[in-house]
Amino acid sequence: MSMPLPGRVCRATLLILVCLAATTASAQYAVGTADMTFVDPDRNNRPIAADVYYPAVSAGPGQTPATPPADGFPAVVFGHGFLMPASVYAWVGQRLAAVGCITALPRTGGELFPSHAEFALDLAFVGRALRALSDNPGSPFYGRLSDLSATMGHSMGGGCSLLAAAGDPTVSAVVNFAAAETNPSAIAACGQLAIPALLFAGTNDCVTPPPEHQIPMYESLNADWRTLVTLTGASHCQFAASNFACSLGEFCAADITRQQQQDLTWSLLEPWVRAVLLGEAGAAAEFQTRLETTPGSSYLQAGGPTSAPSPVVSRDFGLSATPNPFNPATVLTLRLDRADLTRIVLFDLAGRRIRELCHEQRPAGLNLVHWDGRDDRGREVPAGVYLARLEVDGLAVTTRLALVR
Questions:
Q1: pLDDT tens-digit series, residues 299-319
Q2: What are phi and psi of 46, to 5 degrees?
Q3: Fewer CB atoms inside 10 Å of the end CB: C or N, the chain?
């Protein structure tokens, strides 16, 4: 790896100071760790082992999870790169957990010839399975997760994060580092995504060059708020800890250190996560300010904080249900700030569509929609937790419905 040129020393020092200050200010939880295996019953009980990082009462393996805010902790799932172990992304899991995200790094997909489609399904399933633990009294995460989630990843895992989000309507946001085109095409999948998206790229990436990978992804995204950040001097592999498999395929040298690259990435990712997944007031504006003023990066952006989906919304609308839990029926209350085309769709926790309750023009104010516990074909659905997704003007909010029989 080449050393920074003398003219870059001051810039690099400034980056470190800015990024470390941001990291220190945002860390608020101790980080607990766990080795967990999630079993997907819809794919022949496929086991998906994962490294899990979570906000905890004290740091270390198996510690008690911290008490969450009122809305719970969001779930984040991160996909690793080709032939790279999940452990080289511990820095991501640690930092996300410290600000309040329960983060899983699946260890599947490590074969010489991995199936991108299967790995994407693994990412999506683990996200849903994590959130389902919030409804399991026997889980240490009982009552601790929100309805919000994100898929993330690096390189192959970055491309699969887009495939996972496109195939799972319960995913709230997507982030990736130096995402690689996949088979099936992650670029094509971007056309199905209308959720907030944050993509990172490096100018010194000769493994997944931005013009062939991240830029087409960004241009294909259908999200109202999407951002592609290109880090000056950043390489492909330095988004992870040092790893022989990645270094073997990389022929471009970075102009910044690995620590500088990861700290610069975090300085922009951290306020974005606080805005989109944690719903912190002012975090979206903070992200925008850092985006526009932090040296060592350039960006492409469509939309902005005022056009981002919930919880960073410029619209005032909401969705609730009474009674909840319910049997055999419940009434959903829609709050609309103005008359608009309104759609409500129900999904189970596996992401399968259950029923479209309405898709019509609705007046401003409170609107009531009845659900009788049946699917689109009029069949009673089994007891369990379901997700009701309200879509208005390209924005969306989701609430949980608990059906007991």
A1: 999 876 544 444 444 456 788
A2: -60, 120
A3: C
